[in-house]
Specification:
Chain lengths: 454, 454, 454, 454
């Protein structure tokens, strides 16, 4: 396992492996092997040469440390790689060495290798997102009747259900997941353009070789090379950005619910998870903190990618060279967030009683809107608002239920009967369309899916 | 016209108007008017009250300066607005004043108002983008045979055609435009949730009123309120970010082509455009500079929006309050970039002769790849590479054509005949798949359009 | 008052005024007037001409709306301004019109005007920061003995004092304020370089005129023009970024303390502040939300500025044009944050009893570290940690004090006597160096001040 | 050498080593060893225990891969580290194991370890920056008389000297270097606060131990712990951001000068540097591209750090956890930029003849300002501007010298004599204060240095 302590909170293990030296290098070699294969199939180079190249293109025989140093010196990954590969092929077969990297440019190898890594990243992310969606649906279903405080600007507000809250998390993550998959689909294409993006050195055979190459690599073949048109990758980065934002919102809510003073829910603990070196009692919001850290880091990375889109002519001076670490960091951060939230959602524990007692601790204040509406229908919104403001203050000051205070105000009792006042503070009776919304959110399809059906 | 000198390079006039005080205020009032209308239609409030509210909800009778100060004090646009509106309605009809903003929360007004502004922004952006696409298609068509230097890392590379270059600009902008429109479509929905997002104060009538409200405003009605799920807006910001990046890439290429030493093309001049206060002769890349400025600013704004997505519970503390100026700035910057590039593309002038002479000035060096491939086929890529490197140096040092230098090397002449060597440096003969790619790019449909057809 | 509803949460009124059209325009005219004055003083132009120019350079006679449109067209503020000014001067005196903007370039006017605005911004920011510092010192002093929960990862931790917490807010803001002032000092310099930054058109008189110009404007005169060296402005933007981050941290803490379930403190209310349109009882963290919104927006703006520093040769294509709205937005956002936190700190109310009861509600769990250390000294940190983890769980499960639970464990009672166990949970006895740190923080001088003293 | 292909363009080798697993781990162990030492010195733990701990705290005996996985699980680096270290110490001496990490919290270890790494980073960066400054001073000195085109908006403008240009690069980098060193100085402090930042478990001995710890680590001891006050680190990140921006500006200028059509200068080539896999003749701006890539990436990272400053109470949930990879990436990117520009500056080659011929290729157009000023003194700036605009157009159209065209215009010849017109286009005679500015820039001291002298 490739460890990087400095990034230990910034990636999951599979995604650390994915962007490890062995993996990166193999992806570039896979490009070279597939190129040779495609060119042999289309009669551009001898099949025998292709065979040798394919056999040699194995990452474990290369020294990645030296390669990294050469890459920094060359300013591009492709050139040193091709040099080393050619040298290795030559030791097997001098003739074959002639055909290494035939007609391609170094960016072709680097970009396509990046795409190959992204292709492997997609199922890793998808799996966690599906776990998360499943768990959130279940959580929402299980808690459709679980009332809890609404909170606006972190202040108590009329009640919601945990079911609705979870459904809202679900729906935003679901939309972003669909966008992410669409962005992946668009990005999983070969880059193959040769020196200037015309495949000039392949004469009229450019498109034929390109299609064969895409076929070898099980990637799509785009209309044309995209060496300095980075919108597809940018789109993928953005999709990660939006998804991580939605995951961060969920993590934020949960970490707030886990505060000792709130204590409505907790993410799973377990060995080695969320303890404290000094406070043996603590159960920390570890999954939330990792997700929030990702949501903190990804926006700046997205900005870097977007500003790097301004790439000069047929190969950029800086914009392109900046991309690799950005893409890796964004995918890894998104992966940590997705995996963490999946784990949190699957082991999420809820304290329904505490949710209810947190409502009760507001002494009915959160139902002042309700009282205000009821009174407003009789006395006007404005007048009612004033009465309620005073009553709410009194209730808060005296720590008595709002309904009790209201029952002492003649303007109120002349309009609302005792039963109404008594029922005023039953959370279940003041949920409005919560369940309607919850169901709609859970069954919502992303815009993409909807469109298909029309 | 609302001027803001400090932002005079950051917005076009229609988009400055769009986010002016009158326009913002009217959008919020339109929400309140439509809400009253919808609630009258659904029997929630009296039609008479709705009529008064609708009549009063006209921006020109409000003092926006006072309102702005009140908003800062209140920390939200909706509360002061509703207060002032209620006061104004009361002067007409005390009864009607009871029903202003019935069942809604201040965020409902602010968010839906923002959406109403975005709805007006879309056609402004679309018009310029369509002008741009049309001009780029024409430019590409007109220059399918116009050869020019390819340039990688800003160094001369094998030739491309201006037609291909313009087609690549077109295709990336086209993809992003489609994404932008899809993002708009998804965003043009009402926000209506009441205090906690359950529409509790409307009892069971929440969805009915919501649908009527959406209908009144000619917006769509979402599955549920989205008060702290900002992914749709985030998605729109990102679409603007990617589009502006693609526009910036085009602007970058053109500004490089406009350098005196390159002089291959120019954006249109004309009165008041691009002169210099000190240098009367200059024709500056004004449209490009405005577009590049937008491409510089938007990524940071996108990052701010994305990091602001982490909004607490049912209304955020900071994340939400940060959104308005970000959204306005992103839309305006995108608009400046689109309008500028449309103007640039429509009046773009090309100096084909200079393009050719810039190729010739390289003394054939850019065809060394070609020579390398031809020789490589006989001697191997590696050996050929070395020969060519030496020949290229000699050609450059002696300022003689590469083909002349090659014609003096026995290893070369033994493999390539005179005719081949002579034809080596004809750009038209070394364009590979340029025209194939160009056509594919121009006829390319975005992934979205493609999907529909399947 | 120049209102901009869309930015009503993003600026205070004085800073809105500062970047208003009148103000921006006057700053540019001030440059032109001072330039004429300086050139008259140095004998470059006739004093009579300078007099006319100074008289005409009054913002209120200009049409800023037309000017804004011309600026967008010209791509730079200076050229249209100079044209209009020259026209106006000519109507007074044709001879004087010859000398408008003599030897300067449009960027000189625009950059120096921006600096003049920044000069006015500094005291506005400083005043609020000094209010804030004073209030925080007082708050810290008043609460040096006020114990409250420490909270790590938003979980209860050993106690701190509010005095220490406020001192830490103070010290970080104090450091950043000093940096901000240092950054201002460095930035308050004229920009004056002429077309290419050599003042060529002034012959050998460049420096003399530059010094006179600086003198007229009460700005410093730099070593050389800084047309494409934007590090000083960047430094100022960064200082705002760091300061806003520190203000945001304070706002975050307070908004968390204001949660109903925590209820340890509140920012001031008052008319029009922090109410809710639907919930009459609420007292919202308005100042915190505005500050957090600023802390959300500024980092992206800083990133935009930094990436825009890469400006080409002697005047940038995009980087420079992007600056004005970024600088205005950063200064305004910093100003909102500073003013909001000053108001919050000055009217901050503290509920000491609630702070104590929140400590008690943890049943002593937060003293488990303490117990762990005491036991650790006897049994080893590791063994103690395990005992405490079990005891803490039991205490939490049974809602009994940790000390009670511990008193039942033989390994504990064999090491710690009754008195020790009883005193274990007195917050005042477990504050370590809190007061030492608090005093050091309050008396801390910024690194800059320290250096001077050495 | 720790390779990371995906980041091979994003770090130099020494800075890759610096943030390698061995190095990170050793820094954390150094903290633990020094803590034990400091506590032994102050009588808090037995010297014998400290001795064992110090002996065991050697990175090479730990399995970093397992540790990284444990860290992700724990959500913090300190806890798993302490666990493993304690286990190892116990195998040597059970008694000593009791005293591992005594009184500290996991953040203390992680933060101080990061600071220890930064301390090692400083000389690496400084060395390259000093190389760069030296080379730029020399370059400026050597080229004080080398005239070249000024370029504004990438269009030809009046001449500058390469000496002035290099001096401007030097001065901005020099200012930023000083800021960077000041930021380092401020950051090189221990973090030591225990669970809540009060060092409660050390009783009254907190400050004494803290000072001893700082002493052991050769770091400074701050006024108080800074667990959630991250302004010092933020300041360092910003200093890197501004410096990288200045380096990027230099790289941008050079890459533009290296264009084939401009060809005025080149960065050094050499084996493995800047070749092309397909174009043997190319000499690519490799150092520039790496620097520009850094300047592209750093601003977004700075934004992430700044927005992460908003950390909750006594330990953040997300903001803190995001920091490590950001800090590493920023330092490494700054290092690549500094090293690249040092190499570029040291091997920079200049083509003075080409610089002059590029001036001549403008046919005198860049002297139109000069002519305009000369004529303006007689006819007024405005009239002169118009004459020159026409003359410049004619000169450009007919590819004749501007002075020739002017010599045909009676309004001109009536004011300017033949000699004046002939001398008009001598670059050396139109450099204004270039040399004054150049000298001032080279001898400029940073604001900090100046202040000390006062």
């Amino acid at each position: 396992m490739p460890a990087r302590l400095i990034e230990s909170l910034a990636t999951t293990e599979p995604l650390a492996d994915l962007f490890s030296d062995q993996s990166d290098l193999q992806a570039m070699l896979d490009f070279e092997a597939a190129l040779a294969g495609a060119e042999a199939r289309t009669g551009v180079i001898p099949e025998a040469a292709a065979k040798v190249i394919r056999n040699v293109a194995k990452a474990d025989t290369f020294d990645t440390a030296t390669l990294a140093a050469d890459i920094l010196r060359a300013g591009t990954p492709g050139i040193p790689l091709v040099k080393i590969l050619t040298d290795q092929v030559r030791t097997k077969n001098a003739e074959a060495a002639r055909y290494v990297h035939w007609g391609a440019t170094s960016q072709d190898a680097a970009d396509t290798a990046l795409v190959l890594l992204l292709k492997q990243a997609q199922p890793i992310l998808s799996t966690d997102l599906m776990r998360l969606e499943r768990a959130l649906k279940q959580l929402s279903q299980d808690n459709k009747d679980t009332v809890m405080l609404g909170r606006t600007l972190m202040q108590a507000a009329p009640p919601v259900t945990l079911g609705l809250k979870a459904a809202a998390w679900f729906a935003s993550i679901h939309r972003s997941k669909d966008d992410l998959n669409a962005a992946f689909a668009r990005t999983l294409i070969i880059q193959f353009g040769g020196a200037s993006g015309t495949l000039a050195s392949l004469g009229k055979k450019g498109m034929e070789v390109a299609r064969a190459l895409a076929d070898e690599l099980k990637l799509s073949c785009p209309d044309a090379p995209w060496h300095t048109q980075r919108d597809r990758l940018a789109n993928l980065m953005c999709a990660c950005g939006v998804l991580t934002g939605s995951l961060g919102k969920m993590a934020c809510d949960i970490s707030l619910m886990m505060q000792n003073e709130v204590a409505e829910a907790a993410e799973p603990g377990g060995d080695g998870r969320g303890g404290s070196s000094t406070m043996p009692h603590k159960r920390n919001p570890i999954g939330c903190s990792l997700t929030l850290a990702a949501a903190q880091r990804v926006p700046g990375l997205v900005a870097s990618f977007l500003s790097g889109m301004v790439q000069e002519h047929e190969r950029g001076v800086g914009g392109w060279q900046a991309e690799w670490p950005i893409v890796a960091a964004v995918i890894q951060a998104t992966g940590v967030a997705a995996a963490s939230m999946a784990e949190v959602a699957e082991g999420f524990t809820v304290d329904k009683a505490r949710m209810r007692s947190n409502i009760e601790a507001t002494h009915g204040a959160i139902f002042s809107e309700r009282a205000s509406m009821l009174l407003g229908a009789k006395l006007g919104r404005d007048v009612a608002h004033k009465i309620l403001r005073e009553a709410a203050k009194k209730s808060s000051r005296q720590k008595r239920r709002l309904s009790e205070v209201l029952a002492e105000i003649p303007e109120v009792t002349s309009q609302l009967d005792r039963a109404t006042l008594r029922g005023l503070e039953t959370p279940e009776e003041y949920l409005g369309s919560a369940e309607v919304f919850r169901k709609a959110l859970l069954s919502s399809k992303s815009s993409k899916t909807k469109k298909k059906e029309q």
